[in-house]
Amino acid sequence: MAVINSRPSYWIQYGFAEGKAHSRRLESELQNHGLVRAANATSADVILAHSGGCQLIDQPNALFVNPNTWPERNYFEKQWQKIVGEFHNQTPSNRVVASLFWNLVYTFSQFRYNVSLLRPYQLANRASFKSDLRCIIIRNDNDVWCTPDIERYYPNARVITLSGSHDDCWINPAKYVSSMLEQL
Q1: Has domain 9-183 been given CATH number 3.40.50.1820?
Q2: Which of 22, 67, 108, 149 can pair with 54 through a Cys bridge, CB separation 3.0 to 4.6 Å?
């Protein structure tokens, strides 16, 4: 990934029911490393797409974090396992509750955006349309939304496995920023 500006720029593409309230720590970490927020995804040197937001990105300068690719598993089962898992992991309960609160806010305040993410989710192999995309994928080892067999959907991607759960990039952003900076 070539840096276009003297200070590299980033764009965050949010997943379903996510927004700036989730990414405050991540954005702070990015800015502490000298990156600046781009005006949009097409002008960014690097794009960090999370979860369902990965469906909207088809540029090679993307870092996909836990793309939703496990269609064999039931949506409600995955969501329940995610919530229970976050309470059982080392995530402080107040962060989990705050995240769930913001998920609810963004579910309604970004209704059109969220609906745009649901259509591709309904396709049986919804990630297969990006099988030729060359990108980098970070998959957390304790993620119920992203299959361990991610290469089946993105055969041309380089996959990095990190410890953590689905929303770990919002809670512990340093390791994701380090992985992103290695790609610049």
Answers
A1: yes
A2: 67
DSSP 42-84: GG-SEEEEEGGGGGG---TTEEEES--B-TTS-HHHHHHHHHH
Q: Rounded to whole angstroms, how far apart are CA atoms 59 and 50? A: 14
Q: How far apart are alpha carbons 15 and 68 in whole angstroms?
A: 9
| The two three-digit tokens of residue 171, written as one number | 């809670």
Question: pTM for this one?
Answer: 0.84
Exposed (0-12), middle (13-18) or buried (19+): which is 116, by Cβ within 10 Å? middle
CB atoms within 10 A of CB 174: 12
Instruction: Say which DSSP state 110 is in.
Output: T
